[in-house]
Design a protein that fits this description.
By secondary structure, the chain is an alpha/beta fold. It has helices spanning 16-26, 43-49, 62-72, 93-100, 116-119, 123-140, 156-161, 171-181, 206-224, 226-255, 261-312, and strands spanning 3-9, 31-36, 53-56, 77-80, 106-110, 152-155, 186-190. Strands 3-2-1-4-6-5-7 form a seven-stranded mixed β-sheet, sandwiched between helices. Helix 8 (171-181) runs parallel beside helix 9 (206-224) and helix 9 (206-224) crosses helix 10 (226-255).
């Protein structure tokens, strides 16, 4: 099978050469691609000297890089790994084997079950990873151990059918949720995590990027689980409306007259809003069902085209 190593990079001059060399040694049959995302240092030249195919991506953000990678590279197995030398290349061949054997569509390199919390020096990142894992597993009824890892392997089917909409570091969360929602076969293997070497600086902004990830989870919840999302909103609105409606109702039952007219009006408005939210959830859930059906047809067409291409070769 054709294997492509995809390395997104932004100012990784200190580490990218070692990453490329390690993967060329461990997976000599694979082609290593480094996507240089407007680096201000010698990342591109160092990667080229180490034997990688360097591709520029001028739109800033990891999501844009992943979009270009998935569109531009034709392979059977895709390995995506960060260029900061935090993931040993020796841990990747078992992940590749699962893709080659057809036992997975996405293999997640699980840092959190190995050395991440010992190696990672920024404790807020550990808290953020735990929080994102809890939210994704709670919303999407899954048991993923590492949602935001930068080490993954993909099948061709997943790569060529994944609609990238994120622009930044939240792309990992989007990939995980998409795989869970579309019933792709997801496997996880523990991988060793090591902190960045001296001279290498993280580009992740703890608070701003963390808030973007949380916002992405909320939007994915709305898009992938509209009935649950709008149903919870409807339940909350209805509960508040009911609590506000009880005092005017009690006045009317006791005296036949309602003094709290503003409260009654607001409760009725909230009740109507709850019905609208519920109706929106029902409609969007029906649209989502049809979207899933069309997506399955697209997967069938993609598989047919791949079989025809293999027959031609």
């Amino acid at each position: 099978m054709r294997t492509a190593i995809l390395i997104p990079c932004y100012n990784e001059e200190a580490t990218v050469g070692k990453v490329v060399s390690d993967f060329r040694r461990v997976l000599p049959e694979a082609t290593v691609y480094v996507y240089d995302n407007n680096s201000q240092d010698n990342t591109a030249q160092v990667a080229r000297d180490a034997g990688a195919v360097v591709v520029p991506e001028y739109r800033q953000g990891k999501g844009f890089v992943v979009r270009s990678m998935f569109r531009g590279i034709d392979a059977d197995c895709y390995v995506m790994v960060d260029g900061d030398d935090t993931y040993p290349a020796e841990d990747v061949p078992p992940m590749v084997a699962l893709i080659e054997e057809g036992k997975a569509d996405m293999v997640v390199g699980d840092r959190l079950s190995s050395t991440y919390f010992e190696e990672n020096a920024r404790r807020m990142h550990g808290f953020g990873n735990r929080l994102v894992r809890f939210l994704v597993n709670s919303i999407f009824q899954s048991s993923i151990r590492d949602v935001m890892t930068g080490c993954r392997c993909f099948s061709r089917t997943f790569v060529k059918s994944f609609p990238v909409t994120s622009s930044g570091f939240e792309i990992e969360t989007e990939m995980t949720v998409h795989a869970l929602d579309r019933d792709f076969l997801v496997r996880e293997l523990p991988v060793t995590y090591r902190d960045r070497p001296e001279g290498s600086v993280s580009k992740l902004r703890t608070y701003s990027d963390g808030l973007r990830v949380l916002r992405t989870i909320l939007l994915l919840f709305r898009d992938y689980r509209p009935m649950s999302f709008f149903g919870l909103g409807a339940a909350a609105l209805f509960l508040v409306a009911l609590i506000m409606f009880l005092p005017p109702l009690n006045e009317y039952v006791r005296g036949g007259y309602v003094r709290r007219v503003p409260t009654l009006v607001v409760s009725i408005a909230l009740g109507i809003s709850a019905l609208l939210s519920l109706a929106s959830g029902i409609i969007l859930d029906a649209i989502r069902t049809h979207s899933r059906q069309f997506y399955e047809l697209e997967l069938n067409a993609l598989a047919l085209n791949d079989r025809r291409s293999q027959g031609d070769t």
